[in-house]
Every structure is written in structure tokens, then in C-alpha cells.
Amino acid sequence: MLRSGRVVVSGSVRGRAPRTAGPRSRWRAALQVGTGRASRTAATARVRRARFVLRTAAGAPGTTTRFRVRLRAGRRVLATSKVLTVRVPAAAPGPGAPTPAPGTPAPPAVPPAAPGPSGPAPVDFVALNAGRATTCGLRASRRVACWGYGATGEIGDGGNVNRASPVAVAGLTDAVAVDSGSGHTCALRATSQVLCWGYNPTGEVGDGTTANASTPRPVVGLTGATAVSAGGTQSCALLASGQVRCWGGNGSGQLGDGTTTDRTTPVAVQGLTDAVAISAGGVHTCALRAGGQVVCWGGNAGTLGDGTTTNRPTPVAVQGLTDATGVAADYAHACAVRASGQAVCWGSGTLGRVGDGTTADRLTPVPVTGLTNAASVAVGTYHSCAVRATGAVACWGSNSDGALGDGTTTQRTSPVAVVGIGDALQVVGGGGGGSAFSCALRPAGAAVCWGAGDAGQLGTGTVVSGPTTHPVAVVDPGI
Questions:
Q1: Positive or negative, the Cα torsion across 98, 304, 323, 387?
Q2: With contact defined as beta carbons under 8 Å apart, do 112 and 141 qualify?
Q3: Would you put residue 13 in left (φ > 0), alpha (ψ -120 to 50) or beta?
Q4: φ/ψ of residue 309, rounded to 5
Q5: What is the dihedral of CA 39, 387, 335, 407, to 10 degrees?
Q6: d(CA 294, CA 253)
Q7: Which of 33, 78, 439, 446: CA 20 to 30 A from 221?
Q8: How far lies 97's CA from each of 55, 137, 150, 154, 300, in Å?
Q9: Would you list the DSSP string of 28-65?
Q10: Integer angstrom CA distances of residue 313 from 240, 258, 289, 407, 467
Q11: C-alpha count within 13 angstroms, C-beta hemisphere, residue 112
Q12: Which H or E run contains 69?
């Protein structure tokens, strides 16, 4: 069924299980978007008492998306449903829902918009992403608009200046996903090609050089990508095969190739062949595996979740997390959503960003207080946010810039509600260098942001010098 911009599939398991399938408590249902080689796992859920519920994005208005549901026991596929077809009406409320984590598998492809009369186009974002001080949005036309900090080319419009309102990324008309990092941005095209632009001192643009790029450049030697994530100094792409390729800075092992050597072109992450989502953080990277396990690699101030603070140049399992549906990583912490809807976080607890009611560091995942119905989670450098199953948004952590959106600048060690949002489809968190901000996607393609706006990253058309403690509308890009 279609509900608030999401596809909601519920079902039940009948009959007796094969003897080799294991107990029902180990069964998982997986919602696969697409039916060919490019299909991806959009959501998973544990089968409880023979029933399951799966939720994922509905797609852009006027589009049709095909799904299958697969029942698994471990890696064994027990059953596969017939193809399910969902068409989103042109007037449907909500073009899409959030991906599991910043920079993870691309949303369903959206067709180019039909030409219309001259003048500003309607707001039609289908996905958002926030970096250090740059925000980008994917539009239903497959164009990408970016705004905020642009001194090193991260806006992608050919200039090196900040933009307080959305501007079009040059030459990019067929994007299906976009992700912003600390100083660079990457996009996935409908052809599975990845393009990056912006700050490039360690090769994070992936074009074989270390020269900054103010317009998109193709990542060398990368084909078959299904998702892309931009981090602090590294970028990573998920391939249709389940493998992951990374490039850029590698001083802490965040490329996962077993070395600490920077790479200006992609290298394979060792031992990872079944990833379904990726998230690049500051100096570490995490991936969600097909079975619900989360693995991380790179710098480790508790951010790898393996119970140590030892850097790892290849993936290690996050302790006790085997039923995740999404993961998000940033500079000093990471969070995930479990199949039950419980959000968990680990890493630095400074400023309360782990959300367990304390400011203590956590070397393994701990539950976020009172957040048991999360649909997705997002992290910024100093704070975290989640979309609840109801569409409400909750945030926690640093709030000196108003990034929690609760109308105050009071730091919070557990979630508080963002003022006036009860219909969010996605939330993203950004920040760095002492500032923090957040943005949310709402029905009909509208976007709102709150927090620091000193570089124009709120997209209101003006630079804001002080905290914005409640959501404000991103201006119509008109592009």
C-alpha cells in the first residue's frame, strides 16, 4: 500500500518451514526494488510470529516502481513473491522516503520532467543531503541543486563562491543520487557512472588527480555503481555485485583496502561482497550487509563499534548489531536503525550525540533513549536526527546553532521533537568547524532546514549569522 510517500508491505508466512531453514526467529523478509541485475534491497525485517512489515520509498510522483519480497533464512532464499507494482499518482503526497543512511542506495530512478511554461519550476526535491556546510537536493527532473559553502568548488556550478539559494550543478541532468562530504560532493548517474567535484587534496574526487574541481568529473574506472557516499576525505561507491570501492584520503584506513595509502582512483574494500548500503564518515566508513550485520573500518575513536579504539584498515563487525536496516556515519560517531525500529548509536558521546541520556563515549552500540519507532537515522558532526514511523523528526546532541530544531539552543542528550514537522520523508544532518544544521524533505518535494546558516546552507536566499532554531523553507530553485 502507499502511505505518506512510502510503500508499506505487510505479509505473513504460512506452512511448515523446511528442516534446513532454521527457526522462524532467524527468518528475514527483504523488499527488493527492481527485478533485474540492478535490483537492490530497500528494506528488511525479521519475521515475528509469522508476520512482517516492510517500508521503503514510494518513488517520485507519476512513476512506477516494481518490487519483490524475498523470505530468507541466513543466505538461503526460501521463497520469492510475485512482482509487486506501485504507481505513485501525480498528486500523491510525497515523492520519496529517506534512504537507510546518508549516501546509501539510490532512490528509484525518476523520469525527466516534462517541459513547462517559463519561470520558476515547482519545488520537487526527491532526496536531500548535507555536508560540512553544503546542502544538495536531487530533483524529480534528475537535476541536482546545491547551496551553501562553495569556496573550493563543492557547489558544482563552475564557481568558487558560497550560494545562499539552490543553484544547478553544471551538466548533471540524469542523477539518481547525491551525497555531500566535508569538502566535496558526489552523484550517481542513471547510467551507474559516478561523478564527484569540490575539494580534492587527497584524491576524493576520484579523477586520478589532486586538483580541486568546480564542476563534476567522472570517477576513473568505476562502473556498475548503485550508491555513492562522500565522507571527510574519502568517497565510496556500492556496486551491484555487493562489493564496495573507495578512493581519497586513507590515513586511518578508511578506504578499507588494508593499507593507509591515499588513492586518487577507486580500490576494493577487502572481504566485502554482500553490502546493500554504505556511509562514509570523517575518517571511517560503515556498510550494511545483506543479512543485517553492520561492518566498519578506518579510524576508531569508538566509531567502529567493535569494542576497541584500534584503527582497522579492513572491515570489522559492529558488536551485537545483526538486524540493522540502515546505518549512518559521521566524524566521531555512527548510528543505525534496527529491524524493530530501535535506533542505536556508538562512538563519541560528547555533546550528547549518542543519545543515550549521557555524554559518555560508547565503544559498542547503545539504544537511543525513547526512540523505538525510527524509520531512518542521520548524523551530523555534532548531532543526530531520526525520522519516526509517524513522520515526526527527533534530534539530539549539540544545539548551539539550533540544529535540533526544538526552538531552543539547549544541548540535548536524548531526542527532542523538531518543531512543526509531522510528515517528514527524510532528515539529514550536516556541520563541521564548530557549526551544525539539519534539513528535512516533506511531501510534494518541499525542503526545510534549520541550524547554522552562516554559509547559506539553509537555502533561504540569505546568509544567517545566528542560530535558526526552527525549520525554515528552502527557496524554490527555479532551475
A1: negative
A2: yes
A3: beta
A4: -120, 30
A5: 150
A6: 17
A7: 33
A8: 9, 13, 27, 25, 31
A9: EEEEEESSSTT-EEEEEEE-BTTEEEEEEE--STT-EE
A10: 23, 5, 18, 41, 38
A11: 9
A12: strand 64-73
- Cell numbers for 337, please give them: 536503525
Q: Label residue 55 exposed, middle or buried (CB < 10 Å: 0-12, 13-18, 19+).
A: buried
Interatomic CA distance for residues 374 and 339, integer angstroms? 9
- The pTM score is 0.77
Per-residue model confidence as pLDDT tens for the chain (479 residues): 333 344 555 555 544 444 444 554 456 666 655 434 334 455 565 555 455 445 455 554 444 455 556 666 655 556 666 555 554 443 333 333 333 343 333 333 333 332 332 333 357 999 999 999 999 999 999 999 999 999 999 999 999 999 999 999 999 999 999 999 999 999 999 999 999 999 999 999 999 999 999 999 999 999 999 999 999 999 999 999 999 999 999 999 999 999 999 999 999 999 999 999 999 999 999 999 999 999 999 999 999 999 999 999 999 999 999 999 999 999 999 999 999 999 999 999 999 999 999 999 999 999 999 999 999 999 999 999 999 999 999 999 999 999 999 999 999 999 999 999 999 999 999 998 778 999 999 999 999 999 999 999 999 999 999 999 999 999 987 76
Assign residue 127 a region: left if phi > 0, alpha if psi is -120 to 50, beta otherwise? beta
CB 319 within 8 A of CB 305: yes
Q: At a CB cut-off of 8 Å and minimum separation 6, what does 329 contact?
A: 101, 231, 279, 280, 281, 284, 285, 286, 296, 303, 379
Closest Cα partner for 276 from 304, 316, 321, 238?
A: 238
What residue has cell string 526460501? 78
CB-based burial, 222-247: b 16+ in 10 Å, e otherwise: beebbbbbbbbbbbbbbbbebbbbbb
| Whole-angstrom distance, CA of residue 327 vs CA of residue 378 | 8
Q: How far apart are CA 10 and CA 14, in angstroms?
A: 14
Q: Please count the other Cβ atoms lying within 10 Å of the Cβ belonging to residue 161.
A: 12
- State the sign of the Cα–Cα–Cα–Cα dihedral 415, 421, 423, 429: negative
Separation of alpha carbons 192 and 189, rounded Å: 5
Per the CB < 8 A criterion, the answer to whether 396 and 416 are in contact is: yes
